[in-house]
Amino acid sequence: MIRSFLLMTAAFSLAACGQQTASDAPSQMTNTYKSSQSVSGFDKTLKMAQAKLDVAMAAPLTIPVPKDPGGGYTHETHKANGFMLYDVGQLYKLTGEKKYAEFAGQAMLDYAEVYPQWDLHPAKKEQSPGRMFWQNLNESMFLLNISQTYSAIKETLSEDEREKIETDLLRNMADFLSVGAPETFNKVHNHGTWATAAVGLTGYAIGDEDYVEQALMGLDKSGEAGFLKQMDVLFSPDGYYNEGPYYHRFALKPFVIFAQAVEKNNPEQKIFEKRDGILKKATYGLIHQAYGGLFFPINDAIKEKGIRTDELVHAVAIVYDLTGDTGLLSIAAEQDTFVLTPESRKVSQDLAAGKATPFDYKSMRMGDGQNGDQGALDILRASADPNGLVLVAKNTSQGLGHGHFDKMGILVYDAGHEILRDYGAARFLNIEAKYGGHYLPENNKYAKQTVAHNALVVDETSHFNGDVRIGNQHAPTLGRFVNEDGLKGTSAEISTAYDDVRIGRTVAMIEDAAFSGPIIIDLVEGHADGTHSYDLPFHYNGHLIDTNFELQADPLSRSPLGTKNGYQYLWKVAEADPVNEISQVTWLLDQKFYSLTSSVPENTKIVFTQIGANDPNFSLKPEPGFMLRAKTTGGVSFASIIEPHGDYNPTAEYTIGSYSQVKSVSHFESGAAEFILIETKAGETVGLGLGAEDNPDGTHSVDVNGKTMSWTGPFKLFHSDTHLAAQK
Amino acid sequence: MIRSFLLMTAAFSLAACGQQTASDAPSQMTNTYKSSQSVSGFDKTLKMAQAKLDVAMAAPLTIPVPKDPGGGYTHETHKANGFMLYDVGQLYKLTGEKKYAEFAGQAMLDYAEVYPQWDLHPAKKEQSPGRMFWQNLNESMFLLNISQTYSAIKETLSEDEREKIETDLLRNMADFLSVGAPETFNKVHNHGTWATAAVGLTGYAIGDEDYVEQALMGLDKSGEAGFLKQMDVLFSPDGYYNEGPYYHRFALKPFVIFAQAVEKNNPEQKIFEKRDGILKKATYGLIHQAYGGLFFPINDAIKEKGIRTDELVHAVAIVYDLTGDTGLLSIAAEQDTFVLTPESRKVSQDLAAGKATPFDYKSMRMGDGQNGDQGALDILRASADPNGLVLVAKNTSQGLGHGHFDKMGILVYDAGHEILRDYGAARFLNIEAKYGGHYLPENNKYAKQTVAHNALVVDETSHFNGDVRIGNQHAPTLGRFVNEDGLKGTSAEISTAYDDVRIGRTVAMIEDAAFSGPIIIDLVEGHADGTHSYDLPFHYNGHLIDTNFELQADPLSRSPLGTKNGYQYLWKVAEADPVNEISQVTWLLDQKFYSLTSSVPENTKIVFTQIGANDPNFSLKPEPGFMLRAKTTGGVSFASIIEPHGDYNPTAEYTIGSYSQVKSVSHFESGAAEFILIETKAGETVGLGLGAEDNPDGTHSVDVNGKTMSWTGPFKLFHSDTHLAAQK
Fold it and tell me: Interface pTM (ipTM) of the complex?
């Protein structure tokens, strides 16, 4: 029993997911289409689905009486049945073979036979319980699938059969999910979107306008709730989803699937044009929040999730069908996964015809919040090269219950890899032995805490004291965002993360001939009157190679760095003193070196850490990090250069550029204007002037080692060759 | 100066290496050719080399007076010059463009001008010093390159120019490396091969038969030394190289390059047919010692080295030219790297023409030693799928100074990854900040020690007490090797690794319907009379998911596991007690689960470790492991099942088969015959009978839980469905 259930789950999940390749490991993204990858990819998906279903359809569908919660046998069986019936319906549409329609019809009749008898689920969740599943969210997902199946095969059924399926299954379920659960259906939240989309699709499938209207406008059809309202609220005007890309992905599917049905059935709605094309923006927004094929793992996120997920495969196909944007074909080539829809077939055909063009990756500020005024996710990309240097500044709002306490935290990517990383969620999705596959206790206690991020921690306490209710009330104040050739920058600050300290961060990605490629300038400041301790952690990815200071890890023992706020999960590996207030740390990842050179206050310590203390159950990944640790009065500033360099090539046996080019970095202030000066080992200087306000015409001057540096506007790059000329 | 030198090094290394792609990270190997990868790969390599050389040739070659040791400026400059001149010569041959010949001619004249004045190198190594370089090995490599250049462009030079280059550079250098250094030239060792190949190629280039004869037959032309003798001795009859694949790769280049010249100039030698085609066998042997594109990292090995290395690119092209074996084209497709030779061009053309066929990966025993009687490297592959389950049993001899103390150690690969891994060498190749790029002190003190391997340690002491001189005198005694459908197995033992304990290991890869795929049975035994402690470490790769026993890592502290023989580098993370003498540990890697279920003696402890104690300089990688630890009298046995299972798919959000199917494993003995019984959770049993001797007709019986199991031959698999029928 168990074994056949497992096989079944695998079979249908795979079919639903298309021709998933053997490994979903982070792939090197390319922005051009490789001709070998997807030639007839759709046909392969189709054939594989047929082969699997032909085996599965040899026996009638197993329809167990609901009993188990998520992950259990009855739950997983009904879930797999829903995906299977979706595929069966699509196969009938695509092939016209009667056997698919017959199987699906019989299965739905079988469900119609039993569904009315099912009262609330025995393992029901307190909030929003289901009947087939423990929560009605799963019921919505099931109905979303089978309403499409019904629509596909309805023509093959007798009048009596239709009557039975529509009454006892589809309407029964749709009523349960709409009038039966108004608190979900009318909620402006992704669970509401799943419900409205499922009910709306049911309306189209059985030809009941009433369901469609309720779905679009809410139960009372006032427009105060329902799908259109959700479209207005759940994404920011730039297409950012408040909880971040991991949940964005999840929410996207009912939006695009139902919208597509609205477009077909009610084209006068122009649903894809609403709110300046918000659903298209949401699809592009999700693609832009990825690197190396994986989504930025901000907030609670399973790090393996990326552009190959079923939800985004559907969305890309639907949006390509609408727009014909051949840049999306490059994304589809990278997905190399197809679904059983005409739109996915078209994507496959156009890929095979060589129509793909590079996707237009670019630097952007994606405003957060319904009106785009709750902070922003700032993405700085050195170029359109998807494997190039990328910095993500998390200047967003909290992101509700799944949000992490990492105001102005940064992530850095290069050469296809994470360089400064976010831990993501502490969770082993669906792995029962690991806390039932749920979020681990360490998710709240470590992964959400500020110290788990590349973000400033004051007094060893997390932002908003780790209280999500307070966090949800405050977003950072954004400074200016610039996106010019060779100079991209952003800044933000927040005064509410701590009572007595206003923290600000300015990051810029610059190009200058003194360096072999783009580098990042990172200025982190704490503005305060009193005395505070400041920790600025950098969770680097790679092997430590070199430091400019003497560094000795304790050879014989390890102990936790602290006792609370996430610090208890970090082993203290070493503590060291920077040299002349300069800290330089170099690590190696794959074939490149990365140096982080910081100007730090007097008496700063550099503390090296490894995750894994207080982790008796091996819940956490043993990742390394280091933090700049200072205790100061009257505020603090850490000015750092993050510098990819060199080439480690063990295949051809050469190593070049293994040393940082940075000799020193200095931070100067004059009033509210600031200046970062980089001195290279070759004797060159590069400067970045930072204006106090977001005013392109504001003029600023800062005394830099006795010379007055002046400029106009919030960001001004003084190149190594123009530096002297720019001096007064 | 430094900067241009670095650029130069990069340019020429890249040119020599062909169209190296951005990342050499372990690639998923495929055994079929992907049409997009290498279409006109050679042409791209050619164009890239031309573009780079056109820039570089704008100025005359820099020829500094020898001063620096390896890694230093003058060393790296001459090294880069040699590779560059090789490319320039090949480009002339391939394009006929005069500019290449002119540049190379002038460069060689410039070298001829200064070389005679150079006495022994100021930083000369004590043994085998050079003049241009600190050791004459590098001088041989330089001459190997430029003798080919001279051969290519000779026709364009005047009589006077030839005279000068031949006398002052080529002969001067060849004499220095032959009669001037008989201890290297006549040595049967890879340094000798580099010398004889370089001198022999010089002989062909300038038309001096004497050099060729000395190269082939040794200085006295007796055949007691020289290239032919090296061919007879340095590889085993199966093409195994005593030091392992890392140095095999290095030694292979002069063999195939010079042999190719012999084939062209002295075809009557039939050099590629000698010793049953030993140079072809050596090339295939190296390919077979790879997984996921990387060589098995046994002994001192940089783990990133693999099939893309320049040496193997040359060898594959040369052997393909000789044999036309289209299976080699699949290897070339995976290399996706070309060199500037007609043979490499042919490979590229045939790849583009779609001629590639899958490479024939298979299970094999590669005998070690000149006569193949010094142990063997046993490779068990579940199938020809290069990403399938593979077990490597290191039943070889010591492997000289670079050998590790891991008799009968194993490595396991699956799904493209290392599953049970070898640390390889403790070294950051060419990274100056890491001990000058040399082998780290931790290489001898940790990486070579037995505990760093998946090999049995007795009394916390390494094999041969860590003494390489003793190790070199002893090889394991091989038991039988079987390679049948669904049953592959090998065994070996050694009585000299420890004074009082004879250790043996039998491993088998079996397929049975009770499991979702092939599994490994691993029986490790220590035969002894007295009382000893036994540690059997498993260096697993992945995240710990589950154990069948209670496991609690110490939350608040870490201390080293021991004080010597490598133990001092392991943090003790946890210690636990198996349940009913069964230990089961499950970990997750990428998308699969791996369980190791062991039958262990009473009072065995399971000790979990992490590398990194006593490592103040961050020299080691923090890899996890666990060991079965028993103290017994009268010997020990650990019988384990290594079982890949399940599918973790975070993209499609399902997990199946996350639990091991193994309920228990038991080990029975009757006299010298043994029986391993596996009981599954589904109630099935699978058995493996092991005969005592290597006799296909020997009959054996073992009492297994009161039933007599009988069979003939050294390995007998009792399938889950035939088990009862086979009982008496």
Answer: 0.92
